[in-house]
Design a protein that fits this description.
Elements: H1 10-34, H2 43-65
Helix pairs in contact: 1-2
Length: about 70
Amino acid sequence: MSSAHLKADLAKITQVADTLNILAGQFDELTRVTADGSAAGNAALASALSDFANGWSDKRNEFLSRR
């Protein structure tokens, strides 16, 4: 009976984890920016940014809850 060995590139795994953490931070920042709709200067633009940020925020939270 032989046992299988799993090899993992820890440097790449760390790089992916770091990138995902950066993305999570950027989406968090986007959510904070769009919370102030007046900064957009246009109600329709503020609404679109808010919808986008909320959608991404929901998906981000779903993703982060699986970590």
